[in-house]
Amino acid sequence: MPIELDLDDDEELDTALVSAPERDLVDLAGILGMHNVLNQSQYHNVIKGKSQDENTGTSFNNVVKAYQPRAVPDEGENETDVEDCLKKLVEDDAALTEVNINNMKRVSKERIRNLISAATHSTHITKLSMSNTAIGDSEARVRDFVIKLQYDHNIISYCLGAC
C-alpha cells in the first residue's frame, strides 16, 4: 500500500508526519532503511510491498519473537576402523584410495602419526580427511603424497613452523 503525499514545503511535511498514523510511519521507516526501529516482520513487509497487519505489528513498540529453529539430527559416529586402514596403508592396498578419520578425537596422536606415515608411503591414497581430530602442528606436516588433504577444525598454527 503506497503512501502518496503531495507536499510543497517543510511545513506541510511536518503537518503530514504529525498527523500520519503510526502504521504509515512504520512503512516509512522501512522505506528509509531504518530497520533498527522495526522488527523483522515489519521490515520484510515493507521490502515486499505488503501492508502491516496485526500479526506483524503496526507500531514501533512490538515484541520481537524468536523463530523456532528446525531440528537437525546428529550425525552418526565415524565408523572407520583405524587399525584396518593402517594395515591396508602399510600393505599399499590398491583398493584403499581414501581415508576418513574426521571427528575421531579419541584416536591417539601416535596412531594418527603412524597413519600419516603409512599414507606417505602408499602409492594409491588420493584423499586423507582428518578434520576435527585435535591434531596439532607436528601431525599436520604432511608431505605431498595425496591429491586432497583435509584437516580443518584442528589446533594448527598459521605457518606450521615455516614463519
TrEMBL record:
Keywords: Cytoplasm, Cytoskeleton
GO CC list: cytoskeleton; myofibril
Keyword Cytoplasm attributed: yes
Cross-referenced Pfam families: Tropomodulin
Cited Gene3D superfamilies: Ribonuclease Inhibitor
Cell compartment(s), UniProt: Cytoplasm, Cytoskeleton
Organism domain of life: Eukaryota
The keyword Cytoplasm is assigned to this record: yes
GO molecular function terms listed in the Swiss-Prot or TrEMBL record: tropomyosin binding
GO BP terms in the entry: actin filament organization; myofibril assembly; pointed-end actin filament capping
Entry-linked SUPFAM superfamilies: RNI-like
PANTHER family, alphabetized: TROPOMODULIN, TROPOMODULIN, ISOFORM N
Descriptive protein name: Tropomodulin
Biological source species: Panagrolaimus superbus
Taxonomic lineage of the native organism: Eukaryota, Metazoa, Ecdysozoa, Nematoda, Chromadorea
